[in-house]
Amino acid sequence: MAHLVRFVFVVFVLLAMCVLKYEYNNLWTNAPVDFPKAKKSQSAAPSLPQPSATAVTGGSHPERVKLVVVTCKGLLNMTVTNIKSAVAFTTVPLDLLLFADDENREPLRQASMLPDVDAVIYVDADVLFLSPIEELWKYFATMNSSHLAALAPESEDYATNWYRRFARHPFYQPLGVNSGVMLMNLTRMREFGWEKRLGPLLQKYSRDISWGDQDLLNILFSAHPERLLLFPCRWNYRTDHCMYGAYCTAGPPAVIHGSRRAFILESEPAFWGLHQAMEQYELGESLEYSFVVPFKDRLQRSRKTRCGQEFLKQVVHWEATARTIDIAVTNRSQKKES
Questions:
Q1: Residues β-bridged to residue 151
Q2: C-alpha span between 183 and 107 (Å, rounded)
Q3: Whose CA is closest to 136, among 49, 237, 35, 38?
Q4: How far is CA 76 from the centre of its chain?
Q5: Between these two residues, 64 and 150, which has the higher pLDDT value?
Q6: Which of 37, 121, 131, 257 would bridge with 180, disulfide CB 3.0–4.6 Å?
Q7: What are phi and psi of 156, to 5 degrees?
Q8: In terms of DSSP H, where are the helices of 171-248?
Q9: pLDDT tens string 195-215
Q10: Where are the extended beta strands (E) located within 90-196?
Q11: Does the pLDDT at position 52 exceed 80?
Q12: Which domains are delineated in the chain?
């Protein structure tokens, strides 16, 4: 019941987001201890100690994680499902920052909009977590003194890569990067003059960009490759990684990105079915038996595709992750009752 109450609160805040610019909330997750109730405020408190220009942001075991999600423009239901997956698979407290954005350029403005926040993970609304988000946060600790952001490559295959085939502007070599999941060291971005650098690029290449903020990020990091850390494709897994073959071999997919409406269109039943399974899952129930197992059953009955075949290979890993979280939650509940 407590999980349901908290999730209803999130839905209420999301609805409010269609009117307000942004809100800041502390979400309860599957963390091992209790934390204060979710509340709204007009400004965000610092998430981590402010680092120096050469400091490494984040630790290998974060006490809490800051997640930024963009919503509205017909994405309310998808955003709720996104947040549900983050809450279900997260084992540390989660600070959620929601943005209502008509132009979908929030990654370009957060350095100034969140002046007291040191670091965030930004994700598009069409993302589902299948692994604890704190594992992704650990990549902050692998950044060197020059890195100010981390992204995954746009694809792993040279022959089908969009940027190599169609881009009319500079892009991060050799395959470009995808902006759907992004680690942002906001402190370093402010020191770098992030927004001042992006403005002129937008003016110069406005007629050449096809993918909005993603193209601008590619243009910027093509000129400053030393500023970007690449993380594996498993943290931004898309149809590009499976529809023509198994191109992402970095490990079990941990964050699924339903770009190009993959969660909405039934043309790719593996992605559509995954979103349906998480949409129907209720927080507080077993992740393994109320989410992963129903998804596997749905996948086995659906039309066969290469992505579906790849997902069937990965289900065993998702079951193991879900089982680990279920056991931790059960043990914690029993400890409280004793």
A1: 230
A2: 10
A3: 237
A4: 16
A5: 150
A6: 257
A7: -110, -5
A8: 186-192, 194-205, 213-223
A9: 999 989 999 999 989 988 999
A10: 94-100, 119-123, 127-129, 149-153, 177-185
A11: no
A12: 2-258 (3.90.550.10)
Going by the DSSP 8-state scheme, the letter that residue 46 receives in this structure is P
Give every CB contact of residue 60 below 8 A, 6+ residues apart in sequence: 138, 141
Q: State the burial class of residue 266 (Cβ atoms within 10 Å of its Cβ: 0-12, 13-18, 19+).
A: exposed
Total number of residues shown for the chain: 338
* Contact call for residues 85 and 270 (beta carbons, < 8 A): no
Amino acid at 110: Q
Token reading at 104: 């979908």
Strands 22-27 and 94-100: antiparallel
Q: How far apart are CA 176 and CA 153, in angstroms?
A: 6
What's the half-sphere exposure (Cβ side, CA atoms, 13 Å) at 63? 6
Q: What is the pTM of this model?
A: 0.84
Q: Taking CA 117 as the corner, what is the angle to CA 116 and CA 118, rounded to the nearest 5 degrees?
A: 120
pLDDT in tens, 211-247: 889 999 999 999 999 999 999 999 999 999 999 999 9
Amino acid at site 282: E
Q: Are 26 and 92 in contact (CB under 8 A)?
A: no
Per the structure block, which two tokens stand in for 198? 């992006």
